[in-house]
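Review box. Two proteins, two foldings.
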Amino acid sequence: MTIISTSPFLPLELFFMIIDQVRDDKATLAGCTLVSRSWLAPASKHLFREIDIRGQEQLLHFYNFVSSAHFLSRFVKKLVLWSYDDTEEETLEFDVLKVAEILANLPRVDELSILGLSILPIDPRRNVDLIQCIPRPMKTVVFGDIIFDASIYEFLQEAILAPSLESLMLRELHRLLSFFSSVHTMHLEVDCPYFTCPGLLDLENLPPLLDFSVENLTLNADGCVVDLIRNSATPQALTTLQCMPYEECSNDAVQELLDVSPELRDLRFVRYHADGPETCGLPMASFDLSRNGKLQSIHLEAQLVRGFHSIHFATLYLAPWLRTLSTAPGTIQEISFDFCIPPSPEGTPGAEYLKDKVVINQEAVVQLGAGWSQLDTILDRFPSLVKVEFTAAYLTSTDGITGDPWEGVSDHICECMPRTRERKVLVFGVSHF
């Protein structure tokens, strides 16, 4: 007698589609792993795709666990290590060898975020050759607010001079970057009280980052960090770069990075540090873009402060901008100028403040050789130009803001730029923080 099973049967593809619908619900996914063996793999794929480690205790537990949890190697693709925001929690501290060991046990990880952590120096008594971590291509790498905490190095202060101390910290960062070969998107932000004289660092003692290249780079760090990437043995595949160097050594490093980035398409100078042109009194750096023959867009930012006038703006910002744009290739399609307006003494930005800053009279133009008419001439070099955007960004909320910051300003700029105006590419806008 033949027994025909009447139990329902669904193809595995339907199981996968059902589980995909709850891929962001960790509790439901955990329940799905207990339903049957056929549900275990597709549910685990989503359940363990991203691992978040928060705080010192979780890091130690995970570090001890990951070497024996072989199933994780099949599923984990994103790893996030970060400290708690609560200042009462212990700061998350680690050395790069722990990262190497963790990554060695998670070969499918291609997204890594290390946020707000303190990097410990490697104990010289440890045998670093014991860790064999083969550099891998990555989709995204974020080093957010990496801290080389001064307290960690206090025991070294009497024995090691400051430049050597900086070299030591730089070496730890070099080891971090050496874990990767190519990176699609990288955000690098370093916070270190000893990174005050990066020009003193002797980078020749560091080996090159073999086969290391980045495609999209957001760089919130000094020139010594740029040098780590620039000194790579591989020509850069950089297509997007965001930074704003503010020291001479940083300027030199960024220029050399631009020189070895022939594929660059999007260049953004965005202020990230308190020491900007109007706070230190030094002009923004100008750069030679003649080697970036595929560049399509440039973003330039002015962080205005109260008390200075149009001559300061023309000297500190506009003149360097003109020098940079005069070297840009004819492939440029979009240029944006972003003016950040501080609040007035009453707490709201004044509509007349931007006018006082950027409306440059003819006498000053002749004296300084920098004015909007000079920009009009330079823009003739870009036949593919489709947009020149000016944005006034308020640094306060919109509550109580009255008036148009472009009143009397946009007309002045258009009057000084007749050829660009006729091309109908000028755009004026307002944004709020």
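Next protein.
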Amino acid sequence: MIGEILVKRADNKGRILISSFKGKDIYLVNLGSGYFVTGNKEVAEEVSKNASKAFSDEFLKLIEELSPEEIEDIIEKETVNKIGQ
């Protein structure tokens, strides 16, 4: 059913059984917080384009909201974290 939430448990190799895709090519689109799964390549490509654009738009909005000082502080903290690892 459209909109239904399916709960599946991955096996110890990370596999999930979705019987409706048995023996078919499937396309997974990484959305950052999860995956979009479809058997239709065109749908996957469209979701991928829109997901990338949505991520870029949100990232740019976040950057625009920060002051130059806040951006500099974030970069400095991340640099220190990377060096310390």
